């Protein structure tokens, strides 16, 4: 506001005698302000569009399969040449075929489902768990805090890929195991950050005021404190999604993710390891889409963070 | 300072203990047929019994736990089920390779990352800045294995086709055989490891330096007539260093993950490849050994980083 | 709406001898922990050290003292924001000292608090209507449209525009935010409102407005106030009685004018001599007493009478025996003082080795 609140109070009372609606500046919530900034951010829009397109890819995968006429896991004899080598991009196979004669184009579409599903669901779980644990640890303090913090410290000290490998080797790979493992190794970072913020927020006077009104700890945590950490949490969440997607792809790469023959981008790239010299499309196609998806989420996350906190200026033009 | 370190080390020991216990619970207690798991799929009934006997799996859990802990403290990590070698021996063989990969990777990523970050920060809005930011973002987003495979595709395969045989397609040559060969085989792995992390560091350094370069005391230093290089390296970088150190602390887990992927792609027989192979072969003692070692490494690294923190920032020491 | 720039009026409220809040030897110590691994207690901050006080229904009890004397802590003990280390707190005859949070709920409706910091005491991420409606929500009274109406009524009463229901605290000035705090405290029509330095953070011109608002509301709703401040002049003018605190203890209690004209405790006299007077001539004529030394640390307060290290009249007995809080013969019964050598009327207070008083030009 160009006119400070003090002045505007006087100005308002001058132009609008009590009883009438003053022509004041309508207060905008921090959310509205952030949204405004985001809307005008070209990079954010481009990223969002990319994500939406890939989401559409995932949703329409069966439709595409029908249109093209190839299933994602069906092996076509005409997919491999007579010498057994996969066929390249052609009218029959838009993205070429893989070593078993499957349609890479269709498989890429189906792979999008797994990546998006695992990435988003795991992130949501991690964020939810992290926020709750961070709130409890930061607000309730003392024993609860000590126990939860040590727990988070231990989780953060575990080498996540190696542990994930170890875990999955015992339990057996599947989509839900992947999601659970990713969420487990991601929540602690969120929890730590939330805890820090909650710790300092708990000392603020408005929390004291709420207590003096008789509010219980649960109400204070979720009605008073949570809105103040939400902005940070959202930024974190958008940055967590691409990490989760990469994690899932890595697990699939090692054969620890969704069981084959389900198409996953990581799995496809793993299969391409032995064939990329003769079939570059097996490697490049899923890689490009994986890269696009994570890049889009990362750019979007950056833009979201900028939208909430314009002090964090970047000097590169958008 | 000493008290600080002692606290940290004690904490680290506690963390290790918790990790070891977690591993124990996962493998020996969780409801699955432990003996079957340890004997390996496809073992005969007799073999399963043998394994159960040998490992004392029929004893009460707490006794097993006690044995497990005491074995660990004596450095006995068990024996591989594939070739009966001591896990410790296997690990010892693999460490030099993993170490080579990791060290090179770390050095490269610090050099590239911090260097690029400084470059971008000192020339804001220039082409250099935009290029750095762009590539940083791209490499930051890509998974390690994608970068590794792409590097193989481009630098190994395509260059080979063009007759340029410099980069080998994998494999390891020991340092002791030939330094040149050692480095040659490791360049692509190093780059793979380094590029992704370098991206993070470049962004971080850039942001941090931009913050610091805008501070008044930098202006003072410049107005005193100090050369730009001194301003950057002696004054700005020191303040900008703290977030970088924090990031390093967080990154050890990522480093280990990257090492596993890199060794697998490039066929380097280090700990990373070992653990992946052990998964396929269900060689549990080796898996457990490497998991514990990796955790120990992270704990130790965190202690060092914390100590470094305390050196850089006196406030930490006194807290 | 409140008039601008007028001086606050002393409330013409009859003081009943009906006790609303009774504090009996209330003690609050905060443990000081060492920074070692074991976090032992290495000492205690004696924030409140044995306060016995009554608050009468309908009065305004002023509570003054320097920073660190424990008045804010005492306020929080009264409203049970802190648990007391020992002692008893009675509200309306009921012992509320050790009630659990749940048991305390109904009593929370009787006593409320207004905080000092207009910026910190309101949640910046919540809308003002929601903040004022909090008491209703917490105690499960009125909801929905009814609640909105009640909140808007409150807003008008404190001088805010009810249309601003959906705004955020950042859109309001300091004075307006304190009004929001007042509205919030008033919501459940409590009997007691503890005001913790409600105007200290405001512009002087705004202070009068808010004080007048508080006085208006007191008349309308028969409120009882405990008014905490460090500005003795202000407290004197608006309080029925004033209690002076020093290092965690109450050292004098008296009616407002009584304290002003007949301070008995040396510390009260010193405080009075330090409070600013608008009239420069009167200020020049007044004798200033500047106390020597600093306030001792509340972790290890001086034994017996806590003021003795700085007191111009201290004798041996002051170091050995803590003076009781009693009324002096010849004084009003309600005027209590804790001093072995209280000041007589017109007695000049000076350090024995001080230079003779210089006349100020």
Question: How would you describe this protein?
Answer:
The complex is a heterotrimer of chains A (318), B (319) and C (361). Chain A is mainly α and 318 residues long. Helices cover 70% and strands 0% of the residues of chain A. Chain A contains twelve helices and no strands. Chain B is an all-alpha fold and 319 residues long. Chain C is of the alpha/beta class and 361 residues long. Chain C is built from eleven helices and twelve strands. Chain C has helices at 71-78, 101-108, 128-139, 144-157, 174-186, 204-221, 232-238, 256-261, 266-274, 280-285, 316-320; strands spanning 19-33, 41-56, 60-64, 86-91, 94-95, 111-114, 192-196, 224-229, 241-246, 249-255, 326-327, 336-337. The longest helix of chain C is centred in the middle third of the chain and has 18 residues, at 204-221. The two termini of chain C are 43 Å apart. The chains are: A mainly alpha (318), B mainly alpha (319), C alpha/beta (361). Chains in contact: A-B, A-C, B-C.
